[in-house]
Amino acid sequence: MGHHKWLQISWLFVSIMFLSSLVQSSQTYDHESLEDLLCKQVNKDIVNPKTGVFYNISLPSNYTGMEVRVVRLRTSSFYKRGVNSSFFNVPPHVVPQPIRKRMAILYENFGNWSSHYFNVPNYTMVAPVFGFVAYTSSGNSFMDNEKMNLVITQGNPILIHFHHVRLHEKNDTPICVKFSDSGNLEFNNMTKPYVCETYGTGHYTLVVPIPKELYNKRQSKRFTIWWILGFVLGFVGLVVLILLLVTLVKAAKKTRIKKLERNSENGESFDTFWIGETKLPLAPTIRTQPVLEND
Ligand SMILES: *[C@@H]1O[C@H](CO)[C@@H](O)[C@H](O)[C@H]1NC(C)=O
Ligand SMILES: *[C@@H]1O[C@H](CO)[C@@H](O)[C@H](O)[C@H]1NC(C)=O
Ligand SMILES: *[C@@H]1O[C@H](CO)[C@@H](O)[C@H](O)[C@H]1NC(C)=O
Ligand SMILES: *[C@@H]1O[C@H](CO)[C@@H](O)[C@H](O)[C@H]1NC(C)=O
Ligand SMILES: *[C@@H]1O[C@H](CO)[C@@H](O)[C@H](O)[C@H]1NC(C)=O
Ligand SMILES: *[C@@H]1O[C@H](CO)[C@@H](O)[C@H](O)[C@H]1NC(C)=O
Q1: Atom of ligand 2 nearest to the CA of 113
Q2: C-alpha of residue 82 to centroid of ligand 1, in Å
Q3: What does pTM read for this prediction?
Q4: Range of the domain at 244
Q5: In the listed set 210, 235, 257, which residue is the last one of a domain according to the structure?
């Protein structure tokens, strides 16, 4: 009996694992908590940072495919000269706020993680998501918890260059998307091939619309996943119910046999036989033992 039960329980466990993996595969990660983690790691990893030097951050192995760089700048130099990294081109005369002596910029290339962290309904991403976040930087810590906004009142916008763009239909011109902090999407046309303009920090990518028929196919795939989920859930529910019933019936039988055995100890006996491991009474007849009387 014990062996059998363990099998059932492990089967149940496997089904639950399978279910949670199904749910997890459609989950999107939160980039804000990732950035909190990155800030902590940057502050821990980089001691005696040099101003104006770009540092590559080595990420834990479970983030392979993502690239992160940071740089610390004097805000006066940032305002005077701007700053270029491989993707973001910040021109002069951009004002970081609040006003501080130093700032730190976090550059992220989400690579093959892009679709895990970001999603544009009805569109396909044809480039990785690039992140560009500014923080205040003080005495000892490379990055403070305080984020900075960029204000451009005069001069040119910030340019984002997408070098590696996935193949797409010729007549589908990619569109720039900004993922704003409030969770909204802002769409804009490219200003030059694979170049987007922006007036602030944030997360950016290029998308093309999903063709209608492909959209329908995806919907039906999603529908199938939910259908399978429902089926598996129902099945697990049924198994749990059956297990419960079997346990209940077994418990009831046990107490009945115990009761009968107790009765037999009290002088009433009956014949029993065994099926498997279950003791059953053969006949309901109850014989009363003759009572021997002492002289
Ligand atoms: C930092 O990473 C970039 C892109 O992965 C690479 O081109 C560059 O050589 C790296 N720099 C250093 C100092 O490791
Ligand atoms: C990577 O591992 C760390 C712990 O080492 C964990 O906090 C984090 O959530 C993991 N991230 C992913 C994307 O699995
Ligand atoms: C991204 O690609 C790397 C190999 O280049 C791989 O190790 C990693 O698991 C991939 N990440 C995701 C989320 O697919
Ligand atoms: C950034 O690149 C532009 C051209 O792409 C150049 O004109 C500008 O001087 C560069 N700025 C810095 C700070 O290197
Ligand atoms: C996506 O497209 C479908 C039909 O083309 C439409 O019903 C749906 O509202 C769209 N979703 C979003 C988020 O725009
Ligand atoms: C983008 O360009 C198309 C024409 O190519 C135009 O119809 C559309 O309004 C533009 N969108 C924006 C946000 O400027």
Answers
A1: 13
A2: 21
A3: 0.71
A4: 218-282
A5: 210
